[in-house]
Amino acid sequence: MIGEILRFLLDIVFNLVGAILLARAWIHAAKLHPFNPMSQAIYQATNWLVQPLRKIVPTPGGMFDWASLLGALLAAAVYLLLMWLVSTTSMLPVKLLPGLVGASIVTLGRWALNLIVWMTLIQAVLSWVNPMATIMPVLTTLTDPLLAPIRRITPKFGALDLAPLVLVVLAQVATIVLSRISFSLFPLFVL
Fold first, then answer.
1. pLDDT surpasses 70 at 191
2. Handedness of CA 46, 51, 56, 60 (dihedral sign)
3. Domain residue extents for the chain
4. What is the pLDDT of residue 97?
5. 37 or 62: which carries more pLDDT confidence?
6. N- or C-end of the chain: fewer Cβ atoms within 10 A?
7. What residues contact 133, with CB distance under 8 A and at least 6 apart?
8. Burial of 153 (C-beta count, 10 Å sphere; 0-12/13-18/19+)
9. With b meaning 16 or more CB within 10 Å and e meaning fewer, what string describes 159-176?
10. Which bin fits 57, alpha (ψ -120 to 50), beta or left (φ > 0)?
11. How does residue 76 score in pLDDT terms, banded at 50, 70 and 90?
12. What is the largest CA-CA distance in the chain?
């Protein structure tokens, strides 16, 4: 019972940390204004990890925020190690370290897909409930690069936009595929 509770708490904490680190990288890639309140909150929440990593992996203004991505990858590795320890109560054998790296990359992909799903769902709900919410421009800036290609191929039904639904379905399918890949490649790390 205690093991299940610890796994649940680790899952929540690390999914949140990973999502925030990936959101920071996404904000950088989308070139969202750094003084936006949402950007500021995410920067403040992740500076403890990203700033030290910037000394190792500088991000000179390119499209990718490598320090944030490395931070998310490290968070995924720590998450998997802690889940291993909680599940087996033994240290990870050295021969499984390559599997840990691969499983961390797959975990990062799953976190990214979950972030896409949540941001798309929040944007869709807010568009019905409060389209003038202050966070809508941020969500639009972040999700439009993903939704625009889908909007070009989905049929138009007046004011009904099917692109968010299609994106959520595609992200969920990709999550299922990643879970299957992670299980076939790294069965010890799928938790």
1. no
2. positive
3. 2-185
4. 79
5. 37
6. N
7. 126
8. exposed
9. eebebbebbbeebeebbe
10. beta
11. very high
12. 58
- Which helix (DSSP H) or strand (DSSP E) does residue 37 occupy? helix 37-56
- Tell me what the mean pLDDT of segment 74-80 comes to: 94
pTM of the model: 0.88
Q: How far apart are the C-alpha atoms of 137 and 36, rounded to whole Å?
A: 10
Q: What single string gives the DSSP state of each residue in 5-27?
A: HHHHHHHHHHHHHHHHHHHHHHH
The first and second tokens of residue 46, run together, are: 């992740």
Q: Is 160 helix (H, G, I), strand (E, B) or coil?
A: strand
Residue 147 to residue 77: CA distance in whole angstroms: 30
Section 72-84 average pLDDT: 92
**Angle 163-164-170 (CA atoms, 0-180°, nearest 5)?**
90
